[in-house]
Design a protein that fits this description.
alpha/beta, six-stranded parallel sheet, globular, binds NADP nicotinamide-adenine-dinucleotide phosphate, binds zinc ion
Length: about 350
Amino acid sequence: MAQTNAIHAPSAGAPLEPTTIDRRELRPNDVLIDIQYAGICHSDIHQARGEWGEAIFPMVPGHEIAGVVSAVGSEVTQHAVGDRVGVGCMVDSCGECEYCTAGSEQYCVKGNVQTYNGVGFDGEPTYGGYSQQVAVQEHFVCQIPEGIGLDVAAPLLCAGITTYSPLNKWNVGPGKKVAVVGLGGLGHMAVKIAAAMGAEVTVLSQSLKKQEDGYKLGAQHYYATSDENTFTDLRGSFDVILNTVSAEIPVDAYLGLLRVDGAMVNVGAPGTPLSYNAFSLIAGNKVLTGSLIGGLPETQEMLNFCAEHNIGAEIETISADKVNEAYERVLNSDVRYRFVIDTATIGQS
Ligand code: NAP
Ligand code: ZN
Protein backbone atom coordinates (compact mmCIF):
# COMPACT_ATOMS: atom_id res chain seq x y z
CA MET A 1 0.00 0.00 0.00
CA ALA A 2 1.15 3.52 -0.79
CA GLN A 3 -0.45 6.71 0.46
CA THR A 4 -1.36 9.48 -1.92
CA ASN A 5 -2.79 12.96 -1.43
CA ALA A 6 -6.37 13.31 -2.63
CA ILE A 7 -9.51 15.44 -2.44
CA HIS A 8 -12.69 13.80 -1.21
CA ALA A 9 -16.34 14.49 -0.51
CA PRO A 10 -16.89 13.11 3.01
CA SER A 11 -20.66 12.73 2.48
CA ALA A 12 -23.31 13.53 -0.15
CA GLY A 13 -23.34 17.25 -0.87
CA ALA A 14 -20.59 18.12 1.63
CA PRO A 15 -17.80 20.41 0.39
CA LEU A 16 -14.76 18.59 -0.94
CA GLU A 17 -11.65 18.66 1.26
CA PRO A 18 -8.05 17.37 1.24
CA THR A 19 -7.35 13.88 2.50
CA THR A 20 -4.94 10.98 1.98
CA ILE A 21 -5.88 7.58 0.60
CA ASP A 22 -4.15 4.22 0.21
CA ARG A 23 -3.43 2.85 -3.25
CA ARG A 24 -3.03 -0.89 -3.73
CA GLU A 25 0.28 -2.68 -4.26
CA LEU A 26 0.94 -3.08 -7.98
CA ARG A 27 -0.52 -6.29 -9.38
CA PRO A 28 1.32 -8.05 -12.24
CA ASN A 29 -0.88 -6.37 -14.89
CA ASP A 30 -1.13 -2.98 -13.16
CA VAL A 31 0.31 0.35 -14.22
CA LEU A 32 1.14 2.97 -11.58
CA ILE A 33 0.34 6.47 -12.83
CA ASP A 34 1.63 9.75 -11.42
CA ILE A 35 -1.46 11.84 -12.11
CA GLN A 36 -0.77 15.34 -13.40
CA TYR A 37 -4.23 16.58 -14.34
CA ALA A 38 -7.79 15.57 -13.49
CA GLY A 39 -10.79 17.03 -15.30
CA ILE A 40 -14.00 17.97 -13.49
CA CYS A 41 -16.96 16.31 -15.19
CA HIS A 42 -20.54 17.20 -14.32
CA SER A 43 -20.93 13.51 -13.44
CA ASP A 44 -18.52 14.14 -10.54
CA ILE A 45 -20.95 16.74 -9.22
CA HIS A 46 -24.03 14.52 -9.72
CA GLN A 47 -22.31 11.74 -7.76
CA ALA A 48 -20.62 13.83 -5.04
CA ARG A 49 -24.05 15.32 -4.33
CA GLY A 50 -25.79 11.94 -4.32
CA GLU A 51 -28.01 12.86 -7.29
CA TRP A 52 -27.80 9.41 -8.90
CA GLY A 53 -29.01 7.50 -5.86
CA GLU A 54 -26.90 5.43 -3.51
CA ALA A 55 -23.19 6.27 -3.60
CA ILE A 56 -20.04 5.38 -1.71
CA PHE A 57 -18.62 7.96 0.72
CA PRO A 58 -16.09 9.27 1.34
CA MET A 59 -15.78 9.76 -2.43
CA VAL A 60 -12.68 10.79 -4.38
CA PRO A 61 -14.19 11.82 -7.74
CA GLY A 62 -12.33 12.11 -11.04
CA HIS A 63 -12.56 10.03 -14.21
CA GLU A 64 -10.65 12.27 -16.59
CA ILE A 65 -7.12 11.34 -15.62
CA ALA A 66 -3.89 12.22 -17.43
CA GLY A 67 -0.40 11.48 -16.15
CA VAL A 68 2.83 9.59 -16.61
CA VAL A 69 3.58 5.94 -15.89
CA SER A 70 5.94 5.66 -12.91
CA ALA A 71 6.03 1.86 -12.46
CA VAL A 72 4.65 -1.24 -14.16
CA GLY A 73 3.77 -4.71 -12.90
CA SER A 74 5.78 -7.75 -14.05
CA GLU A 75 3.28 -8.79 -16.77
CA VAL A 76 2.54 -5.39 -18.29
CA THR A 77 3.19 -5.28 -22.04
CA GLN A 78 1.28 -2.27 -23.39
CA HIS A 79 2.79 0.54 -21.29
CA ALA A 80 6.24 1.49 -20.00
CA VAL A 81 7.67 3.82 -17.38
CA GLY A 82 7.62 7.38 -18.75
CA ASP A 83 4.62 6.85 -21.07
CA ARG A 84 2.02 9.62 -21.18
CA VAL A 85 -1.27 7.93 -20.38
CA GLY A 86 -4.91 8.51 -19.56
CA VAL A 87 -7.67 6.74 -17.64
CA GLY A 88 -11.36 7.39 -18.11
CA CYS A 89 -14.51 6.21 -16.39
CA MET A 90 -13.73 2.48 -16.01
CA VAL A 91 -10.91 0.53 -14.37
CA ASP A 92 -12.13 -3.07 -14.79
CA SER A 93 -14.75 -5.33 -16.36
CA CYS A 94 -15.22 -9.13 -16.63
CA GLY A 95 -13.21 -9.26 -19.87
CA GLU A 96 -15.15 -12.33 -21.04
CA CYS A 97 -18.71 -11.40 -21.95
CA GLU A 98 -19.85 -10.58 -25.48
CA TYR A 99 -19.56 -6.83 -24.85
CA CYS A 100 -16.11 -6.93 -23.24
CA THR A 101 -14.72 -9.13 -26.00
CA ALA A 102 -16.18 -6.72 -28.58
CA GLY A 103 -14.38 -3.80 -26.93
CA SER A 104 -17.53 -2.32 -25.36
CA GLU A 105 -16.41 -2.82 -21.78
CA GLN A 106 -18.78 -0.10 -20.59
CA TYR A 107 -21.68 -2.50 -21.24
CA CYS A 108 -20.08 -5.48 -19.45
CA VAL A 109 -22.82 -7.89 -18.32
CA LYS A 110 -21.29 -8.06 -14.85
CA GLY A 111 -21.10 -4.28 -14.78
CA ASN A 112 -17.94 -2.32 -15.41
CA VAL A 113 -15.98 -1.15 -12.38
CA GLN A 114 -16.20 2.63 -12.28
CA THR A 115 -13.02 4.60 -11.67
CA TYR A 116 -14.58 5.96 -8.49
CA ASN A 117 -17.83 5.39 -6.61
CA GLY A 118 -17.46 1.76 -7.69
CA VAL A 119 -16.46 -1.53 -6.10
CA GLY A 120 -13.68 -3.61 -7.64
CA PHE A 121 -13.95 -7.36 -8.15
CA ASP A 122 -11.78 -7.57 -5.00
CA GLY A 123 -14.61 -5.96 -3.01
CA GLU A 124 -12.67 -2.74 -2.41
CA PRO A 125 -14.15 0.69 -3.19
CA THR A 126 -12.53 2.64 -6.02
CA TYR A 127 -11.17 6.18 -5.66
CA GLY A 128 -10.74 8.50 -8.63
CA GLY A 129 -8.45 11.01 -10.21
CA TYR A 130 -8.57 13.94 -7.78
CA SER A 131 -5.36 12.48 -6.35
CA GLN A 132 -1.68 12.14 -7.14
CA GLN A 133 -1.27 8.46 -7.94
CA VAL A 134 -3.43 5.58 -9.09
CA ALA A 135 -2.81 1.91 -9.90
CA VAL A 136 -4.89 0.72 -12.86
CA GLN A 137 -5.02 -2.54 -14.80
CA GLU A 138 -3.19 -1.90 -18.06
CA HIS A 139 -6.15 -2.72 -20.33
CA PHE A 140 -7.96 0.34 -18.95
CA VAL A 141 -5.05 2.70 -19.58
CA CYS A 142 -4.78 4.58 -22.92
CA GLN A 143 -1.76 6.16 -24.54
CA ILE A 144 -1.96 9.94 -24.97
CA PRO A 145 -0.37 10.73 -28.33
CA GLU A 146 2.51 13.20 -28.51
CA GLY A 147 1.21 16.59 -29.57
CA ILE A 148 -1.68 16.74 -27.09
CA GLY A 149 -0.75 18.37 -23.77
CA LEU A 150 -1.68 16.28 -20.74
CA ASP A 151 -3.80 19.13 -19.37
CA VAL A 152 -5.99 19.47 -22.47
CA ALA A 153 -6.00 15.69 -22.94
CA ALA A 154 -7.47 14.87 -19.53
CA PRO A 155 -11.06 15.86 -20.47
CA LEU A 156 -10.89 13.70 -23.60
CA LEU A 157 -11.01 10.62 -21.36
CA CYS A 158 -14.68 11.26 -20.55
CA ALA A 159 -16.04 14.32 -22.41
CA GLY A 160 -14.10 13.36 -25.55
CA ILE A 161 -15.09 9.71 -25.78
CA THR A 162 -18.68 10.29 -24.63
CA THR A 163 -19.27 12.57 -27.61
CA TYR A 164 -16.98 10.86 -30.16
CA SER A 165 -18.64 7.47 -29.70
CA PRO A 166 -22.24 8.41 -30.61
CA LEU A 167 -21.08 10.81 -33.36
CA ASN A 168 -19.14 7.91 -34.84
CA LYS A 169 -21.95 5.40 -34.43
CA TRP A 170 -24.53 7.68 -36.07
CA ASN A 171 -22.26 8.27 -39.07
CA VAL A 172 -21.67 11.95 -38.54
CA GLY A 173 -19.55 13.33 -41.37
CA PRO A 174 -19.71 15.39 -44.56
CA GLY A 175 -23.26 16.15 -45.67
CA LYS A 176 -24.72 15.56 -42.20
CA LYS A 177 -26.37 18.25 -40.09
CA VAL A 178 -25.69 17.85 -36.39
CA ALA A 179 -27.06 19.84 -33.46
CA VAL A 180 -25.27 19.88 -30.13
CA VAL A 181 -27.52 20.80 -27.21
CA GLY A 182 -25.67 22.48 -24.29
CA LEU A 183 -22.25 24.06 -24.71
CA GLY A 184 -20.45 22.81 -21.60
CA GLY A 185 -17.68 20.24 -21.15
CA LEU A 186 -19.25 17.54 -23.31
CA GLY A 187 -20.91 19.99 -25.69
CA HIS A 188 -17.76 21.87 -26.63
CA MET A 189 -15.97 18.57 -27.35
CA ALA A 190 -18.93 17.44 -29.46
CA VAL A 191 -18.71 20.63 -31.54
CA LYS A 192 -14.97 20.23 -32.13
CA ILE A 193 -15.20 16.53 -32.97
CA ALA A 194 -18.30 16.75 -35.19
CA ALA A 195 -16.70 19.65 -37.09
CA ALA A 196 -13.48 17.65 -37.52
CA MET A 197 -15.58 14.75 -38.84
CA GLY A 198 -16.80 17.13 -41.55
CA ALA A 199 -20.39 17.71 -40.43
CA GLU A 200 -22.35 20.97 -40.47
CA VAL A 201 -22.66 21.77 -36.77
CA THR A 202 -25.28 23.85 -34.95
CA VAL A 203 -25.12 24.75 -31.27
CA LEU A 204 -28.38 24.94 -29.34
CA SER A 205 -27.57 26.77 -26.11
CA GLN A 206 -29.78 28.41 -23.50
CA SER A 207 -28.62 31.85 -24.59
CA LEU A 208 -26.37 33.54 -27.16
CA LYS A 209 -23.72 34.35 -24.52
CA LYS A 210 -21.23 31.82 -25.91
CA GLN A 211 -22.00 32.35 -29.60
CA GLU A 212 -18.54 33.64 -30.58
CA ASP A 213 -16.93 30.68 -28.83
CA GLY A 214 -19.27 28.29 -30.61
CA TYR A 215 -18.09 29.55 -34.01
CA LYS A 216 -14.44 29.32 -32.94
CA LEU A 217 -14.98 25.73 -31.82
CA GLY A 218 -16.21 24.86 -35.32
CA ALA A 219 -19.98 25.43 -35.34
CA GLN A 220 -21.56 27.06 -38.40
CA HIS A 221 -24.82 28.02 -36.65
CA TYR A 222 -25.79 28.99 -33.12
CA TYR A 223 -29.29 29.42 -31.68
CA ALA A 224 -30.72 30.21 -28.25
CA THR A 225 -33.24 27.68 -26.99
CA SER A 226 -34.77 30.40 -24.81
CA ASP A 227 -36.03 31.93 -28.08
CA GLU A 228 -39.21 30.09 -29.08
CA ASN A 229 -38.62 30.89 -32.77
CA THR A 230 -35.67 28.51 -32.68
CA PHE A 231 -38.02 25.54 -32.47
CA THR A 232 -40.14 26.70 -35.40
CA ASP A 233 -37.30 27.96 -37.59
CA LEU A 234 -35.27 24.75 -37.26
CA ARG A 235 -38.11 22.24 -37.56
CA GLY A 236 -37.07 19.08 -39.44
CA SER A 237 -33.45 20.23 -39.85
CA PHE A 238 -31.06 17.74 -38.26
CA ASP A 239 -29.82 14.25 -39.00
CA VAL A 240 -28.43 13.90 -35.48
CA ILE A 241 -29.05 15.79 -32.24
CA LEU A 242 -26.62 15.16 -29.39
CA ASN A 243 -28.09 16.22 -26.06
CA THR A 244 -25.42 16.94 -23.45
CA VAL A 245 -27.60 18.83 -20.97
CA SER A 246 -27.25 17.89 -17.30
CA ALA A 247 -30.87 18.79 -16.51
CA GLU A 248 -34.32 17.89 -17.85
CA ILE A 249 -35.12 19.24 -21.30
CA PRO A 250 -38.40 19.25 -23.31
CA VAL A 251 -37.58 16.19 -25.41
CA ASP A 252 -40.58 16.56 -27.77
CA ALA A 253 -39.49 20.04 -28.81
CA TYR A 254 -36.06 18.70 -29.79
CA LEU A 255 -37.46 15.64 -31.58
CA GLY A 256 -39.36 18.11 -33.74
CA LEU A 257 -36.02 19.43 -35.00
CA LEU A 258 -35.02 16.04 -36.46
CA ARG A 259 -35.43 15.12 -40.11
CA VAL A 260 -37.35 11.96 -40.96
CA ASP A 261 -35.15 9.00 -39.83
CA GLY A 262 -33.06 11.33 -37.68
CA ALA A 263 -31.65 10.32 -34.31
CA MET A 264 -31.51 12.15 -31.01
CA VAL A 265 -28.79 10.76 -28.78
CA ASN A 266 -29.00 11.53 -25.11
CA VAL A 267 -25.75 11.59 -23.21
CA GLY A 268 -26.79 14.10 -20.54
CA ALA A 269 -27.64 12.24 -17.34
CA PRO A 270 -29.96 14.21 -15.05
CA GLY A 271 -31.05 12.36 -11.92
CA THR A 272 -34.72 12.87 -12.81
CA PRO A 273 -36.67 11.22 -15.68
CA LEU A 274 -37.04 12.63 -19.19
CA SER A 275 -40.38 12.12 -20.93
CA TYR A 276 -41.58 12.23 -24.54
CA ASN A 277 -44.76 11.81 -26.54
CA ALA A 278 -44.82 8.63 -28.69
CA PHE A 279 -46.10 10.65 -31.67
CA SER A 280 -42.90 12.70 -31.67
CA LEU A 281 -41.09 9.54 -32.84
CA ILE A 282 -43.86 7.87 -34.84
CA ALA A 283 -44.45 10.87 -37.05
CA GLY A 284 -40.99 10.77 -38.59
CA ASN A 285 -39.57 7.28 -37.98
CA LYS A 286 -37.25 8.97 -35.52
CA VAL A 287 -34.81 7.43 -33.07
CA LEU A 288 -34.38 8.44 -29.44
CA THR A 289 -31.35 6.73 -27.96
CA GLY A 290 -28.60 7.02 -25.37
CA SER A 291 -24.90 6.32 -25.14
CA LEU A 292 -22.51 5.58 -22.28
CA ILE A 293 -18.89 6.77 -22.60
CA GLY A 294 -17.07 4.36 -24.99
CA GLY A 295 -15.02 1.17 -24.88
CA LEU A 296 -11.24 1.05 -24.62
CA PRO A 297 -10.42 0.49 -28.31
CA GLU A 298 -12.68 3.37 -29.30
CA THR A 299 -11.20 5.59 -26.57
CA GLN A 300 -7.72 5.06 -28.02
CA GLU A 301 -9.13 5.68 -31.53
CA MET A 302 -10.65 8.96 -30.26
CA LEU A 303 -7.34 10.06 -28.74
CA ASN A 304 -5.57 9.33 -32.03
CA PHE A 305 -8.29 11.19 -33.96
CA CYS A 306 -7.91 14.21 -31.66
CA ALA A 307 -4.14 14.19 -32.11
CA GLU A 308 -4.51 14.04 -35.92
CA HIS A 309 -6.96 16.94 -35.89
CA ASN A 310 -5.10 18.94 -33.26
CA ILE A 311 -8.00 18.75 -30.84
CA GLY A 312 -7.76 19.20 -27.08
CA ALA A 313 -10.27 20.51 -24.57
CA GLU A 314 -10.64 24.22 -23.83
CA ILE A 315 -9.67 24.31 -20.18
CA GLU A 316 -9.35 26.46 -17.10
CA THR A 317 -6.67 24.95 -14.89
CA ILE A 318 -7.32 25.29 -11.17
CA SER A 319 -5.52 24.46 -7.96
CA ALA A 320 -6.99 21.93 -5.58
CA ASP A 321 -8.36 24.54 -3.17
CA LYS A 322 -10.66 25.89 -5.93
CA VAL A 323 -12.61 22.67 -6.53
CA ASN A 324 -15.75 23.66 -4.59
CA GLU A 325 -15.84 27.01 -6.37
CA ALA A 326 -15.43 25.23 -9.71
CA TYR A 327 -18.39 22.95 -8.91
CA GLU A 328 -20.58 26.01 -8.31
CA ARG A 329 -19.44 27.56 -11.55
CA VAL A 330 -20.22 24.38 -13.51
CA LEU A 331 -23.71 24.35 -11.97
CA ASN A 332 -24.17 27.96 -13.12
CA SER A 333 -23.07 27.06 -16.69
CA ASP A 334 -20.06 29.29 -16.03
CA VAL A 335 -17.41 26.94 -17.39
CA ARG A 336 -15.32 27.57 -20.50
CA TYR A 337 -15.25 24.72 -21.07
CA ARG A 338 -13.69 22.28 -18.62
CA PHE A 339 -12.06 22.78 -15.25
CA VAL A 340 -8.90 20.74 -14.86
CA ILE A 341 -7.21 20.27 -11.49
CA ASP A 342 -3.43 20.60 -11.40
CA THR A 343 -2.96 17.63 -9.09
CA ALA A 344 0.49 18.83 -7.97
CA THR A 345 -1.42 21.35 -5.83
CA ILE A 346 -3.29 18.67 -3.85
CA GLY A 347 -2.05 18.55 -0.28
CA GLN A 348 -0.31 21.93 -0.52
CA SER A 349 -2.73 23.94 1.59
P1 NAP B 1 -21.57 20.84 -18.13
O1 NAP B 1 -20.18 21.22 -18.44
O2 NAP B 1 -22.25 21.39 -16.92
O3 NAP B 1 -22.45 21.14 -19.44
C1 NAP B 1 -23.84 21.01 -19.48
C2 NAP B 1 -24.42 22.16 -20.30
O4 NAP B 1 -25.83 21.96 -20.38
C3 NAP B 1 -24.26 23.53 -19.67
O5 NAP B 1 -23.02 24.14 -19.96
C4 NAP B 1 -25.40 24.30 -20.30
O6 NAP B 1 -25.03 24.70 -21.61
C5 NAP B 1 -26.48 23.23 -20.44
N1 NAP B 1 -27.44 23.31 -19.33
C6 NAP B 1 -27.20 23.23 -18.00
N2 NAP B 1 -28.33 23.32 -17.29
C7 NAP B 1 -29.32 23.48 -18.18
C8 NAP B 1 -30.73 23.61 -18.07
N3 NAP B 1 -31.33 23.64 -16.88
N4 NAP B 1 -31.44 23.70 -19.21
C9 NAP B 1 -30.84 23.69 -20.40
N5 NAP B 1 -29.49 23.58 -20.56
C10 NAP B 1 -28.76 23.45 -19.47
O7 NAP B 1 -21.69 19.26 -17.95
P2 NAP B 1 -20.89 18.09 -18.71
O8 NAP B 1 -19.73 17.70 -17.89
O9 NAP B 1 -20.75 18.43 -20.12
O10 NAP B 1 -21.93 16.88 -18.55
C11 NAP B 1 -23.23 17.00 -19.13
C12 NAP B 1 -24.10 15.84 -18.72
O11 NAP B 1 -23.59 14.65 -19.33
C13 NAP B 1 -24.12 15.56 -17.22
O12 NAP B 1 -25.44 15.19 -16.85
C14 NAP B 1 -23.17 14.39 -17.06
O13 NAP B 1 -23.42 13.60 -15.94
C15 NAP B 1 -23.47 13.64 -18.34
N6 NAP B 1 -22.42 12.70 -18.76
C16 NAP B 1 -22.83 11.57 -19.37
C17 NAP B 1 -21.90 10.67 -19.85
C18 NAP B 1 -22.34 9.44 -20.58
O14 NAP B 1 -21.56 8.50 -20.69
N7 NAP B 1 -23.54 9.41 -21.11
C19 NAP B 1 -20.54 10.92 -19.67
C20 NAP B 1 -20.16 12.11 -19.07
C21 NAP B 1 -21.11 13.00 -18.62
P3 NAP B 1 -25.60 26.09 -22.23
O15 NAP B 1 -25.23 27.15 -21.25
O16 NAP B 1 -24.85 26.17 -23.52
O17 NAP B 1 -27.05 25.93 -22.43
ZN1 ZN C 1 -17.51 12.24 -17.00
